[in-house]
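Re: that backbone. Tokens:
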């Protein structure tokens, strides 16, 4: 399957699909719905699965096809493209979560520094009160 074919079929620009592939941008829900319908993968699977599950399920599907005698290259390539797309989406989700964790750590560090400053100010005020009496 080529990028051009996928682009024409789903009415999504080649550059947008390329950006999704390399992780430059995340697809919107409408685009994910198109991919879901095209690749016959539930949206929930695209958003709520892990990579191991996709590898295991993908391998099982290909094995079943081979057992049934369906071994054409196009169907195998189609399955591979579907799982590559899913892995890329999951990778983007992981990167997003990692960024959120990093931001939360920075927020915690900032709050801890603020607390230290407040404790120092309290001690200084207590000293001033002692000296005032």
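Recovered sequence:
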């Amino acid at each position: 399957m080529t990028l051009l074919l996928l682009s024409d079929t789903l009415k999504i620009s080649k550059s947008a699909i390329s950006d999704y592939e390399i992780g430059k941008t995340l697809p919107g829900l409408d685009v994910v719905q198109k991919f879901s319908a095209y690749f016959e993968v539930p949206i929930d699977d695209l958003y709520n699965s892990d990579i191991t599950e996709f590898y295991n399920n993908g391998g099982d599907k290909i094995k079943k096809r081979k057992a049934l005698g369906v071994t054409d290259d196009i169907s195998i390539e189609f399955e591979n493209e579907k799982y590559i797309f899913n892995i890329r989406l999951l990778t983007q989700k992981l990167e997003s979560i990692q960024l959120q964790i990093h931001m939360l750590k920075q927020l915690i560090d900032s709050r801890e520094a603020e607390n230290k400053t407040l404790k120092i100010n309290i001690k200084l005020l207590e000293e001033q009160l002692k000296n005032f009496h």
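Residues 27 and 79 are 20 Å apart (CA to CA). The radius of gyration is 26 Å.
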